[in-house]
From TrEMBL:
GO molecular function per UniProt: DNA-binding transcription factor activity; transcription cis-regulatory region binding
SUPFAM superfamilies tied to this protein: Periplasmic binding protein-like II, Winged helix' DNA-binding domain
Name of the protein described by the UniProt record: LysR family transcriptional regulator
Source organism: Acetonema longum DSM 6540
Keywords: DNA-binding, Transcription, Transcription regulation
Entry-linked Gene3D superfamilies: 3.40.190.290, Winged helix-like DNA-binding domain superfamily/Winged helix DNA-binding domain
Amino acid sequence: MDDKDWMMLTIIKEERNLTKSAQRLFLSQPALTYRLQSLEQEFGVRILNRYPNGVSFTMQGEYILQCAEELLQKIKHTRECVQAMEDHIEGPLRLGISSVFAKFKMAPILKEYKQRFPNVQLSLKTGSSTSQLPDMLQNREVDIAILRGDFNWPEKKHTLLEEPFCVVSAKPLELDDLPSLPWIQYETAAITKTDYDYCTWWQEYFCAPPPPVTKVDSIEACIQLVTHGIGWTILPKIHVGNNRALFTRPVIWSNGRPMLKKTVMAYRNETLNRPAAKVFVDYILHECFD
């Protein structure tokens, strides 16, 4: 027996007629009859007396109906209480967000969160995932960090996304074409594992040495050069989005697995003791990236 059965009994009580009850429940009468029979089998008693002009509840049915009404009222009260708890969650929450994630993903997430928890005072810092955000988290400048790539963190950490790296070009390319075409590389201030991954992938896939490389210090410049046909690049898919001027194909390892870029959320264990932080973590994990 579940809340749909409870509601069914209350509607039958109001209508005293199975045909009208079925119409209100958007069921066929045979379907309603089948559910009633299943309920009677579950309790081992007859719930309704059936007459040519309607139905009435048996003594046992009246008791089951009373319990159903009480349970529906408890469910309603529970929902109201939970909603009231959400409405009164308040306090500061400091977020450190990857600049890339903030640009492409964060705005609708924060909009929904603020609508549900308007009394939480959010502060948002953006920065580099390779240095700034880990330092902010380590130095307690932020409560929760969402950053790109993986990193060593001894406390709570969740993987939110794993997106593919892609070969990006202004026209369709075969991978065998790459050694003869200029390679545009986005170069960050810090050497990351991805730089090493590129080299390992190239060595796995090609016998030829890498082509001439043009290095740029911004992804926007990298995409512009590729868009104008100056060369090809490798980037996480998030940067390309729905850009119809560009063509992509995933970067695949020799074992058939794609090269992936992680987005992770990290925080201290104690952070969950604060309601504003806990509901943010739950919201991210169970509603945004479940």
